[in-house]
Amino acid sequence: MNMRAEPPVGQKVRVATASLAGCFGCHMSVLDMDERILDLVERVDFDRTPLTDIKTLGPCDLGLIEGGVANAENVEVLREFRRQCKVLVAVGACAVTGGIPAMRNSVPLAEVLDEAFVHGMGLVNPGIPDDPELPLLLSQVHPIHEVVRVDYFLPGCPPSADAIWSLLTAVLEGGALHLTWAQLRYD
Amino acid sequence: MSNDQQRSTFTLDGRRIPFTPGQTIMDAALAAGVYIPHLCHKPGYAPHGSCRVCVVRADGRELSACTAPAAADMSVESEVADIRALRVAVLQMLFAEGNHVCPACEASGNCTLQAVAYHCGMLTPRFPQRFPRRAVDASHPDVILDHNRCILCELCVRASRDHDGKRVFAVSGRGITSKLIVDAPSGRLGDTDFSAEDAAAHVCPVGAILPRDEAFRVPIGQRRFDLAPVSRVGDVALDPDAEVLAADAESEVLA
Amino acid sequence: MSGASGLAAEHGGAHADPARIERVLRGSLAALGRGPDTVLQHLIAQQQVFSHVPDAAIGRLVEELGVTRAQILAAVDFYAFLHLTPRGRFDILVSDNITDRMLGNAALMTQLCDALGVRAGEPRADGRVSLDYTSCTGMCDQGPAALVNGLALTRLDAARIREIAALVEADTPLAHWPKRFFAVSNNVHRSGLLLGDLETREAGLAALFARGGPAVLAEVERAGLRGRGGAGFTTALKWRFCREAPSENGHADKVIVCNADEGEPGTFKDRVLLSAYADLVFEGMTLAAGVVGAKTGFLYLRGEYRYLLDHLEAVLARRRAQGLLGTGIGAGEGPGGGFDFDIHIHLGAGAYICGEESALIESLEGKRGITRKRPPFPVTEGYLDRPTVVNNVETFLGAARIAEHGGYWFRSEGTDRSAGSKILSVSGDCARPGIYEVPFGTPVADVLADCGAEDTQSVQVSGAAGVTLTPDEFHRLLAFEDLPTAGSFMVFDHSRDLLDMVRNFAGFFAHESCGFCTPCRVGGRLVLDLVDKVAAGAAGRHDLDELRDIAQVMRRASHCGLGHTAANHVLNTLDKFPHIYRDRLRMSDYTPSFDLDAALAEARALAHRDDAEAHLAADA
């Protein structure tokens, strides 16, 4: 699992990020690393990421995925990241375990949609949407490693900026991820 | 000759651990202030040996420290790479088996499963999540029983039977369909003679049996295992060595 | 005798009105008493009459036995043959060992389901019939096999299935079904030291009476007899430990248990021994009682063999009448005579784990069959914490003959470390499946030649928990020092796909895990899912690595022998028959853990969509 994301000398590391079924909290935590973000920007270029609003994905050294896999579009995005990124990281509880979105797995999908679109309170024009533009929901939400190979896992809800920094250090240097006791949290 | 000199010892990862005849490897280690990860074991309760997290290698044989009697001059390996990997796999099985959603769990920070997984450096549940559909029993006025988080350690079964004299709980079924049940015709905790004062109400190592109204009295981040690693506060006796151990824990680095 | 041990005259699906429940309960209470340890036998009695354990019966048992409702529910839920809701009045369970599958049990199940208009696992709406699969019923030499209301059916074929369907539709009581349906052959094809001599002389007991316990123990020791259940613990040592174990009331409360819970897939020798050699088995148990000083004996008979119950009870009754059981056995016949001992038959109820001695003891005590931690061992703290000897059926038989002929006689066959003979249960692809008694140290190839096996691809020695052999290994010896075995010997020729065997065993162990420890409970299920994934052509190389790793975790970290051995077949076949996996792998090394497109099916149906965007390709 000691994948190495480091590019040839003199080039910056190309990084892409995405939030699947997540809350963007992990992305917020990346921004939480204070002045270290200046170091980071020195060393990385961003490809597709909500942080830059770039929407297309090219070949990257590192992909960071937040969120679980809840629908067909999540699967497509995740597969695209896996194809384009040398190193792929599951960031945060939802990507690592399914997390909060996966709590819907305790309820059959028909009941979920019924509550949301048919019999829930305050609905106008009730009915389950059938627009082909909308991604279909998977019957259950899954962690991302159940769909594609994942090189690193960084748990936490969200992982602390410190933990993210440790992750980036490990990935950029191609080593194993070492989290201190204080950095390893699932909540 | 003093008592100390008469006491037999074994080695645990190279440290000499004294023991008295009849003590298990776990008993002796915890009494000496040395932590061995465990979930279904609790000092004062009959050894059980079901979770298998306390697997160690004693003179070449892999066995559960909580049930294996200590023997003189035995060489026990615990915090070595392959045993740690074995423990992580067992923990991953537990996480994949139930619904352990730490960010949404009242017990987070007080949960021994979580704390042991931190100690062992588990980063992913790895196996396909089973996402079982299990009930939450909110029938009792003072205690919630959430089957999603039960790890079948039977501490509540033992506490109710051996400490409370009640036999409120039992494990039913077999294999992956095993489940905790309660002793009432309705199958609901509220219809048993269970009480929030029972030992069984406070022994659950996860968030399956939770006293009501205590949820966030202590905020996340300030709870038992948020403040200190399980290796320091998880049933380990405080002895003169504890200071050293505590210092170790501060700098504990996880693989 | 009625209730738990007598074969109830009324069977299956009697209407569970309170008066009738009470009548059955009174019967079993009279027969078995009110000890908490009798609970399982009372439950079996209810199940047999009502095709389930009625709720009212549970309430009454709580009152009568002082156990909790939760304990009873836990037991009913644990044992495969006990149910809380009614099965059909004809409850048919099709044996599902790999050998049954090789003989076409699936097609017969489909035929029976179609003929009766019923689905496996769900009783028919009119309550007449229910069908399901069950673990190996021990009829591998005359399968495909099944149980109907607990009684063994053998040699099923399409014609017999048609007849059975007609009998069920006509509501014909089992007593009026053709006797040939229930015929069980012994199929002994090779006899040796033990099976060559059927005669009951009680000469072993005579030796005990005349020479005394220590002398008999010395003969058993001299013989080098080791346990025939597979683990091979030295029998004399076990008996000595129990004899020397302190007990509160002197020797009187020690216990002898005969383990006839022959559940290892592919083994059926105990069925034959109990059919044709029951006297010798009971003689061996009585010898053990005389040696260790036990008063109480149990034969733990697997539920699948309840058709033997009447026969065995009759043998016990005769032995009591002969003074070979009861009080003052052999009084006045020498220093070893004059002791009290009797044997009770305790039925199992569908749980492979109960073949493990401490789980068996838990079951004898009326509980779920969960393996105990050790130490303490049963010889010091067994049944109700009394010193207890648990031996295999074949071990007791051997002990009886050793007492008669002496230890040197037994040692005349076998090897230094594996004295005597081994009784094998041979099944699968061979001309003459059945029982073969061979000297320990016999090569696998000799057995294959003997049973008429040709073009053999693999032999599974010692059951699903045993070892998978390649033809390169057929020179290996059946002996504790090379291939230890409890006797199961399943043959697979080159027409077979060994992944079918792996799937069958993985399903078996996932079903039979008691659920106590994490690695076996969860790991067993993970192994099954991965093997199914391979079979579905959906696995990548990563899955094989996971399979191997999980198997190792089970082997290293499980609580008992079941978990330690449950994934042997996976590790063996990954090493020795890697093509059965490799040939089915996808190109991609890493594949999803679930079928992505199938996971959209529910949403497609709810949204009434079937456009291209409503599907996901299997490969990225």
From TrEMBL, chain B:
- Residues forming the 2Fe-2S ferredoxin-type domain are 6-82
Instruction: Return the CDD domains for the record.
Output: fer2 (cd00207)
This protein's record includes keyword Transmembrane: no
Stretches of the chain forming a coiled coil according to its record: none
InterPro entries listed in its UniProt record:
2Fe-2S_ferredoxin-like_sf, 2Fe-2S_ferredoxin-type, NAD-red_Hydgase_HoxS_gsu, NADH_UbQ_OxRdtase_75kDa_su_CS, NADH_UbQ_OxRdtase_Gsu_4Fe4S-bd
| Cofactor(s), names only, from the UniProt record | [4Fe-4S] cluster
Q: Which family does it belong to?
A: Belongs to the complex I 75 kDa subunit family.
Quaternary structure (record): Composed of 13 different subunits. Subunits NuoCD, E, F, and G constitute the peripheral sector of the complex.
Q: What is this protein called?
A: NADH-quinone oxidoreductase subunit G
Species: Thiohalocapsa halophila
Automatic annotation (TrEMBL), chain C:
Q: Which PROSITE patterns would you find in this protein's record? A: COMPLEX1_51K_1 (PS00644), COMPLEX1_51K_2 (PS00645)
**SUPFAM superfamilies with a match to the protein in the record:** Nqo1 FMN-binding domain-like (SSF142019), Nqo1 middle domain-like (SSF142984), Nqo1C-terminal domain-like (SSF140490), Thioredoxin-like (SSF52833)
The record's section on SMART domains has: NADH_4Fe-4S
The organism sits in which domain of life?
Bacteria
Q: What keywords are annotated for this sequence in UniProt?
A: 4Fe-4S, Iron, Iron-sulfur, Metal-binding
Which cofactor(s) are needed, names only?
FMN
Annotated signal peptide = none
Against Pfam families, the record matches this protein to: 2Fe-2S_thioredx (PF01257), Complex1_51K (PF01512), NADH_4Fe-4S (PF10589)
Domain NADH-ubiquinone oxidoreductase 51kDa subunit iron-sulphur binding, residue spans? 499-544
Does the keyword rRNA-binding feature in the UniProt annotation? no
Q: Which family does it belong to?
A: Belongs to the complex I 51 kDa subunit family.
- Stated name of the protein: NADH-quinone oxidoreductase subunit F
